[in-house]
Amino acid sequence: PEVVVWREFDRSKLYTADLESGLHHLLRGELAAHKALAGAELRTLKDFVTVLARLFPGRAPVKKLLETLQEWLASLPLDRIPYNAVLDLVNNKMRISGIFLTNHVMWVGCQGSRPELRGYTCSLWQLFHTLTVEAGARPEALDGTGLEDDPQAVLQTIRRYVRTFFGCRACSEHFEAVAKESMGAVKTTDRAILWLWETHNLVNSRLAGHLSEDPKFPKVPWPTPDLCPACHEEIKGVHSWNEGQVLLFLKQHYSGDNLVDTYAA
Ligand code: FAD
């Protein structure tokens, strides 16, 4: 049988290795399904890369790659670009110094107990939560992008990415249905953070007991009481969330300060 090497990790931390592995998969795998990018697809990619370039909290060589990709996309006079041009930039064919993104996956907090479980989709959720938290902490980071002063901007950009590019089509259909229902009511960046948390818990409860569930990572309401005791309350014997505490917890858990580089390439 295949030997699975288990990497010890701390569930209260975020791992650079997961976020960078996710970006690698997104930029070199998921986007590659689109041989050419034009029209609404290209606009979606540009906005998503802009959000990443301004808000991704990781290491400098990855940030520089995202900024370079964003500037290149913004400067293009073309309304149609081949995916291979994006790939050349991601692979740093121009050899601009200080740019690097790992070209293999190394899951840590997102590792599964079998190879087909967890991994990319886990890292994508983490990336999305990180982006909503960063946008709340540093709203000025989006100045000059056309996405500033709009508390829904990051969520709507994530929504368009998922609808257009996310390889799991059933996932994107479900997500779009929820977004259509309730994303429009979000009025502040705090609400945007909580909207994504609530929606993620909805997905967790829908998938509990599903074949895709990793037995080592059961689908339960998150954050569990061991991660955030203050998030949980009981009113007349019925569980309820303390949203103020949940918000504080999300801001801490998904902040750049909670990222650790252990196992990162
Ligand atoms: P994930 O749900 O991937 O979560 C990753 C990590 O985020 C967890 O380990 C935990 O640390 C943290 N977390 C958990 N819950 C929350 C929360 N509420 N708020 C903040 N952080 C949290 N799979 C399907 O089979 N069908 C679908 O319809 C489907 N829809 C999806 C839609 C989207 C937008 C995405 C990104 C993924 C979707 N998936 C779907 C995949 C699925 O949600 C999981 O990613 C996958 O099953 C792996 O689960 P996991 O155990 O790694 O935890």
UniProtKB/TrEMBL annotation:
Name it.
Sulfhydryl oxidase
The ERV/ALR sulfhydryl oxidase domain is annotated at 113-222
* Organism in which the protein naturally occurs: Neovison vison
> Complete protein: which residues are present?
183 to 447 of 572
Q: What is this protein for, i.e. what is its function?
A: Catalyzes the oxidation of sulfhydryl groups in peptide and protein thiols to disulfides with the reduction of oxygen to hydrogen peroxide.
Family, as annotated: Belongs to the quiescin-sulfhydryl oxidase (QSOX) family.
Q: What domain of life is recorded for the organism?
A: Eukaryota
